[in-house]
Amino acid sequence: MSNDAHLREDKVDGGVAYDGSFLKIHRDHVRLPNGKITSREYIRHPGAVAILPVLDDGRILLERQFRYPNDRVFIEFPAGKIDAGEDPFESAKRELEEETGYTASEWHFVTTIHNAIAYSDEHLDLYLARGLKAGEAKLDEGEFVECFTATLDEALAWVRNGEISDVKTIIGIFWLDKLRSGVWTPE
């Protein structure tokens, strides 16, 4: 990678503008590469995981969940926030079981994505889960999720027609398609 000094923005001052129970919004003044000062507002996020669960017959496990900011139900892969001090892999195992009831005997790290780079430091670690065994979901208080299965081709069609618009799910579906074709392999 080349030297990026000509693109860097450096913090002059700033701090927390809002400190919520889940998100922290920061407002900083930064010096641009041309020397001018401007402000940046951004959200600090603890990070999250998303799981790409593949059943033995090749179908994928998805869920439907209402997302309040967009006032609609989305089709998504199981996912959740990494708890303070928690290893992301342990978070992935916990979230899969809590949201779907499934456990997996085979796990592979897939990739890390940054889903909102203009206004947040949030990242998601994606994990492939195979060797799934059904169990009972252990949803958090106030969490309502409907699980279902689909073929990868159905999911790809839903991405194409806009029925799936969640970015982590789209990226996960594209990864599964590349893995299925043998073009890419997980770690």
TrEMBL record:
SUPFAM superfamilies according to UniProt: Nudix
Cellular component, GO annotation: cytosol
Molecular functions (GO terms): hydrolase activity
Any Pfam family matching the protein: NUDIX
Domain Nudix hydrolase: 43-172
Cofactor: Mg(2+)
Assigned keywords, A-Z: Hydrolase
Annotated catalysed reactions: GDP-alpha-D-mannose + H2O = alpha-D-mannose 1-phosphate + GMP + 2 H(+)
Keyword Ubl conjugation in record: no
GO BP term (any one): nucleoside phosphate metabolic process
InterPro entries to which the protein is assigned, alphabetical: NUDIX_hydrolase-like_dom_sf, NUDIX_hydrolase_dom
Coiled-coil region list: none
Family per record: Belongs to the Nudix hydrolase family. NudK subfamily.
Protein name: GDP-mannose pyrophosphatase
Annotated organism of origin: Pseudoduganella lurida
Lineage summary: Bacteria, Pseudomonadati, Pseudomonadota, Betaproteobacteria, Burkholderiales
